[in-house]
Amino acid sequence: METLEQTNKSFETKSRTFIYDGSFNGFLTAVFIGFEQKMSHADIQPNTSVQNGLFTETETIFTNLEKAKRVWNGVKNRSSTAIKNIYFAFLSEQKGIEPLLYCYIQKLMQCTENNTSNFTDDCILKINQLAHKVGREKHRMEAFVRFQLTKDDVYFAIIEPDFNVLPLVSKHFRSRYADQQWIIYDAKRNYGLYFNLEAVEIVNLDLQNTFANSIHENTAFKSEEYDYQQLWNNYFQSTNIKSRINKKLHTQHVPKRYWKYLSEKKVS
Fold first, then answer.
1. pTM of the predicted structure, to 2 decimals
2. Under a CB-based contact definition with an 8 Å cutoff, are residues 266 and 218 in contact?
3. What angle do CA 126, 127, 128 make, to 5 degrees?
4. What tens digit of pLDDT does each residue of 89-138 get?
5. CA gap 139, 52 in Å, rounded
6. Rounded to the nearest 5°, which phi and psi values hold at 193?
7. What is the domain partition of the chain in residue ranges?
């Protein structure tokens, strides 16, 4: 059986559109098929937003975990930095990220040495930049998540990150809040993570405006939750020295797009 490197040695100048299910494993499967068919370029697109050219040849890719794992291990054996960059950049959800990642993986596998820091290459530079942005968003979410205790004794938090970072923050919150049930819900992508004290699972909820960040009490939460929030707000206000407030610096560290779900920024 050919290795990923051997498959990738001689690419034909062909182009084809691969349609996959939008999952990371589905994307890796498409990469495997592209390498297997020795495609010099593969326009990989999720099935939710397909844009085909008039004369473009298309192929539907069905996720194959074995093939996806071969690509993952092939890249990982070359560079642990590259595998992180690929996953983080994929979660950026940027339009056209799949063909760019295909190019990135192709360059990595064709090179005899690790070239993930060759920023003179536009493809490698863009993937590194995107991965850095997603990593920064991950750390911000870990810092800015604000839980509220529901009447079901589940700690609930809403986020709307720029990138799809929920898969990246799961380990952090599972470790930090291992003795509590919690849900972190991405309202922008309409899915969340639920930790039931044993495992993390994906959930979908119909939220509407039930969990709006307001000073008005919501029947979904315990009444003492608002007492804790009031204490926190009082502490937050008391530590602010008006003469030393630097609004520009504050918004630099806590951008306004995160204020919507911060308890210290509640609106009436």
1. 0.79
2. no
3. 90
4. 999 999 999 999 999 999 998 876 767 778 888 999 999 999 999 999 99
5. 36
6. -110, 130
7. 4-136, 145-265
